[in-house]
Design brief:
The structure is a single chain. This protein is an alpha+beta fold and about 150 residues long. The chain has one domain (about 10-145). The chain contains three helices and five strands, in the order ααβαββββ. The protein has helices spanning about 10-60, 65-70, 80-85, and strands spanning about 75, 100-105, 115-125, 125-135, 140-145. The longest helix is centred in the N-terminal third of the chain and has 52 residues, at about 10-60. The protein is rod-shaped.
Length: about 150
């Protein structure tokens, strides 16, 4: 009689199921890592905006954008923030946020500013949004709205 190594159909099915479960867990974990990386990037860029705002205030005696000085009437976007504060922030389309963008509110008083990072996360049923915010008196950006990864 000949000895042959063979696997049964049941062994093959169990192996495929285990590999599938491990792949599912890994993909979910990877997505969480990407979300947290986007959140870190958003917070770091908001701290960069805050530092630039402090320098701008020291030079002009008001934060950017101040309505009376700049004529703004609404939120200014990433490109205007770059121009006004001398930064080089990019609206990112990498990672989970599609896009990750920035905006600063048009202030009516010279001693105030508030800026947001906005993440739009597409998923099969629509889009999730979350926002981090930094203000002149805040030490660190904070979750302003949505389910922010911490």
């Amino acid at each position: 009689m000949k000895n042959t190594l063979a696997i049964t159909l049941m062994e093959l099915i169990v192996t495929v199921v285990i590999v599938g479960i491990l792949a599912g867990v890994t993909v979910f974990g990877f997505k969480q890592v990407i979300r947290k990386a986007d959140a870190k990037k958003a917070k770091i860029n908001l701290l960069t905006i805050k530092a630039a705002q402090k320098i701008y205030f020291a030079k002009h005696n008001y934060y950017y954008p101040y309505a009376a000085a700049t004529g703004c009437t609404a939120q200014v976007t990433t490109s205007a923030i770059n121009t006004g504060l001398g930064l080089d922030l990019q609206d990112s389309t990498e990672g989970a946020c599609q896009p990750l963008s920035y905006t600063c509110g048009c202030s009516l008083t010279p001693g105030n500013f508030d800026c947001l990072s906005i993440c739009q996360e597409p998923y099969s049923g629509g889009v999730n949004f979350y926002y981090y915010k930094i203000e002149e008196n805040a030490d660190m950006p904070f979750c302003f709205a949505g389910a922010c990864p911490e």
